[in-house]
Specification:
The chain contains 29 helices and no strands. By secondary structure, the protein is mainly α.
């Protein structure tokens, strides 16, 4: 027993320096992201800032994240991780990003372990893992809080792979435990992001190319993995809807680009070549890409087909030379399949789509280093190490520069409009970053929205945002024109009807405001934002029973997780003279995380109950520092 522990200790000590070097390098390259902000208009707001279901840990919140879609995705593990972040960090974006960075480091260390197991060389495994961790295409996944799902999916994917290998290769009594642990890890990966559906294919191919003793491929043990992956794939298809006219909707499914499957196929061939270019020469990276749509077999498509055909032939030749080496480019191909438009997605390409495929690239790097190390000439080794060091320094420098782009919404969209000036989505994002900045620049936002509409006349979100910008500038005539045009083009646009109601409210046309809000509600009965606006309007009109009904509806929709809504109910009950009920709702709001002490104490609606001893007890309990 003691000798076994000594062996394990020696093994760990052998890998301590490579591991510390990977950790130090990652902290150096990505450490600046800890000063970044949430991206206020690109998913971070919908996943976290505007999502009461992650602002603390409670049974209703856990129920919610396992039973609802968020931003068009079913990813409860991702949401659970945000809950933990909020408990630890509050709403400090740097804390959320630190979690992202730690997960990326863990993924790199697990990959190092896997590569060392296969190539038996610390230097080769370290180089492969470092290439994976430092490459600029990984910045989007690490520096964007909303891509936590990518990091978590990779973590559990690699753990599932690790335990599968233990089950496959170790003839011990723990094989069943290893297998069940691997299956559980895959389930967690799939509950983070559906890209992990490739796992059954990966382990089947791994068994084929890395044949173990006895030299045969098992099929039955792949079936549970396959069943779990199929269920996850169905959930992903059901959850991903690109209808952005509904609050809380999102996702990636769309129609075929170019209007047909063949046009999408032609379009993706140059996209695949673009990915190869990004791996080899990672310049011009962007948050959005606008690859050309190809409806015919034109010169670009032909060139891409020839390049990919040559790579396929090379893969065949590699397979005849070394089956194990051939597995890794095949892994890269399999890893890109979920985002290769087999199921059409809104976006054709993204940096984050390469996070999983980069495992194959890292492994090829490790094998290349191992091959070079076989030569006994020390000058070859010196030259190789010099090239590796230079390459990793260049990649690290590029990643550090790329990380700065993700500092906040303004820096991200400023970079994006430079890279893709003909993208209406880029200008739309730019407009939002200006409109909702700490110091709003609404005039510039309007110019950006107008540019977006010019590029895409059917853009509904651009018109909605433009209308809201005019309302905020008290330019009600232009707001009316824009919103009427939006609703003429899209009569069932929930956000459009809500903005039209806001316009009426600003004009003190309360009857029109209510009818427009209720029209929006008829189109999306569970739109929390609309219920909130109706409740506020009812309070303004003195219709307390109707206000209470609206706020209580929100309670049912959001599983009693909304702190602000509980506070609104406390105010409503105070207005109605129900002091006891008001105290109960105020306590509920405080339990859920409502923390605006100054706002509570200055709220005129709550003043009638402030002499109540129960109110003082609550204030002393939740704001002891204010005593």
């Amino acid at each position: 027993m003691i000798s076994c522990l000594m062996i394990k200790f020696k093994e760990c000590r052998t890998h301590l320096l490579p591991a510390l070097m990977l950790i130090f390098a990652s902290l150096t390259v990505y450490g600046s992201i800890l000063s970044h902000d949430f991206l206020s208009n690109w998913d971070d707001n919908r996943y976290i800032l505007e999502n009461p279901d992650v602002l603390g840990i409670s049974w209703p919140r856990i129920q919610a994240v396992f039973s609802k879609y968020y931003v068009g995705n079913y990813a409860p593990v991702q949401l659970l991780s945000y809950m933990l972040d909020h408990v630890i960090w509050g709403l400090w974006a740097g804390g959320f990003l630190l979690t992202n960075l730690l997960l990326h480091i863990l993924n790199g260390l697990l990959l190092y372990r896997l590569l060392f197991r296969l190539v038996k060389s610390r230097l080769a495994a370290w180089c492969g893992a470092a290439f994976f961790m430092m490459h600029p295409v990984q910045v989007e996944t690490v520096a964007w809080i909303s891509q936590r799902k990518n990091l978590l999916a990779m973590l559990f994917f690699l753990i599932a792979w690790e335990f599968y290998l233990a089950y496959r290769d170790e003839g011990t009594a723990k094989r069943r435990i290893y297998y069940l642990t691997s299956l559980l890890a895959l389930l967690l990966a799939l509950l983070s992001k559906s890209v992990a559906v490739i796992f059954p294919v990966v382990i089947f191919l791994f068994d084929y190319f890395y044949t173990s003793a006895p030299a045969r491929i098992r099929y039955v043990d792949k079936v549970p993995y396959l069943l779990v992956a199929i269920v996850a794939a169905v959930l992903a298809l059901l959850s991903q809807t690109p209808d952005y006219t509904e609050w809380g909707a999102g996702g990636g499914r769309a129609g075929f680009h170019g209007g047909s499957a063949i046009a999408t196929f032609f379009t993706m061939l140059p996209v695949f070549c673009s990915y190869l270019r990004m791996i080899v020469w990672p310049t011009g990276l962007s948050a959005l890409y606008e690859p050309a749509i190809h409806n015919s077999f034109d010169f670009s498509v032909l060139t891409a087909a020839l390049i990919l055909g040559g790579i396929t032939f090379l893969l065949y030749r590699i397979c005849s030379y070394d089956r194990r080496l051939a597995f890794w480019p095949l892994f890269t191909i399999v890893a890109i399949l979920p985002v290769s438009q087999i199921v059409p997605l809104v976006t054709l390409m993204n940096d984050r789509y390469l996070y999983f495929p980069m495992i194959g690239v890292a492994a090829l790097t490790a094998y290349a280093i191992k091959f070079i190390n076989q030569f006994s000439n020390k000058w070859i080794h010196v030259f190789t190490l010099s090239v590796i060091a230079t390459l990793l320094l260049l990649l690290s420098g590029a990643s550090m520069q790329r990380s700065k782009v993700w500092r906040n919404a303004a820096t991200l969209w400023s970079d994006t409009v430079k890279k893709t000036p003909d993208s209406y989505l880029a200008w739309e994002g730019m407009g939002e970053s200006l409109q909702y900045a700490a110091t709003p620049r609404r005039g510039e936002a309007i110019v950006a929205y107008q540019r977006a509409i010019k590029l895409n006349p059917s853009g509904e979100m651009s018109r909605y945002n433009l209308g809201m910008a005019y309302i905020e500038l008290f330019d009600y005539a232009n707001a009316d024109t824009i919103l009427r045009e939006l609703l003429k083009r899209s009569p069932n646009n929930v956000m459009g009807w809500t903005a039209f109601g806001d316009l009426a409210l600003h004009r003190f046309e309360y009857s029109d405001a209510e009818s427009r809000y209720r029209k929006a509600l008829s189109l999306q009965p569970e739109a929390v934002q609309v219920h909130q606006k109706i409740g506020n309007l009812m309070v303004l009109l003195g219709r307390i029973d109707d206000a209470r009904s609206s706020y209580q509806r929100i309670e049912g929709i959001q599983w009693s997780n909304n702190a602000l809504n509980a506070y609104e109910l406390a105010r409503v009950e105070a207005i109605a003279g129900n002091t006891g009920a008001s105290i109960v709702w105020l306590e509920s709001a405080l339990q859920r995380g409502y923390s605006n002490y100054a706002g509570i104490m200055a709220d005129e609606e709550l003043m009638p109950m402030m002499p109540d001893a129960r109110f003082a007890d609550l204030v002393n309990k939740y704001f002891p520092q204010q005593r």
